[in-house]
Amino acid sequence: xxxxVLNADSVIKExxxxxxxxxxxxxxxxxxxDRIDDTGYTAKLEEFVxxxxxxxxxxxxxIRREGGTPxxxxxxxxxxTKGQVVIADIAGDKxxxxxxxxxxxxxxxxxxxxxxxAFPEHVQTLLDKGLEDERRHKAWIERTLExx
Length: 148
Fold this sequence. Notes:
- The structure is a single chain.
- The protein has a single domain, classed as Ferritin, core subunit, four-helix bundle (Ferritin, Up-down Bundle), CATH 1.20.1260.
- 79% of the residues lie in helices and 0% in strands.
- It has five helices and no strands.
- By secondary structure, the chain is mainly α.
């Protein structure tokens, strides 16, 4: 972990990247929810959407407090993450969950990298909680795929 706490510009830049990724995850989950057949799965995926929406709200507030303007949508990755789900629709629920697993692996990786940065303590707390959520999402998807 770095010893110097990140300055406001670095905090804004790093958190903006995470907010965009969370927006991408929201789009991918919504695409999955629209296509998945198992209603038990959709209920869980709806729960995960709410987690990502909370991440966007909380991190966007930090960006504003640091003097920045938070993103209001994802970036180019959205086409890729949502596209994986749309393509997987042809092969059914298991393929959709596999696409979501790949998306969550990217999100977990981004949050893990961020938690290694020297963010101010209040930001670190939000990132740790976000990482916990992302790991929980990924673990559920993996367990569900193993049982399918």
